[in-house]
Amino acid sequence: DDIPLEERCPFKCDKCERRFPEKSGLKRHLQVKHDDPEKAKNHPFKCDECGATFKNKKSLTFHAKVHMRNRHMGELHSFKIV
């Protein structure tokens, strides 16, 4: 397509130049890839699989079910989720 990358993905990481179409994607990227210390202080519960962080253990437990469901779906369809 002819739409410039800057228009398709206007949110740019100032640490690695990666771009995102939505602000939420950039925020998650910063949290997971660059360990935002302010976020870590407010979200002390970290997922061992993807690095996502949460304010409380209940939210982390709920999130972990997504990984379990994805693994289960991968087994059902004979492909590996990484």
TrEMBL record:
Q: Where is the C2H2-type domain?
A: 11-39, 45-72
**Chief location of this protein?**
nucleus
Originating species: Pristionchus mayeri
Q: Which PROSITE patterns match?
A: ZINC_FINGER_C2H2_1, ZINC_FINGER_C2H2_2
Name the SMART domains on file.
Answer: ZnF_C2H2
Keyword field: DNA-binding, Metal-binding, Nucleus, Repeat, Transcription, Transcription regulation, Zinc, Zinc-finger
Q: Where in the cell is it found?
A: Nucleus
Example GO molecular function: DNA-binding transcription factor activity, RNA polymerase II-specific
A single cellular component GO annotation: nucleus
The Gene Ontology biological process annotation of the record reads: negative regulation of transcription by RNA polymerase II
InterPro entries in UniProt = Znf_C2H2_sf (IPR036236), Znf_C2H2_type (IPR013087)
Name this polypeptide is given? C2H2-type domain-containing protein
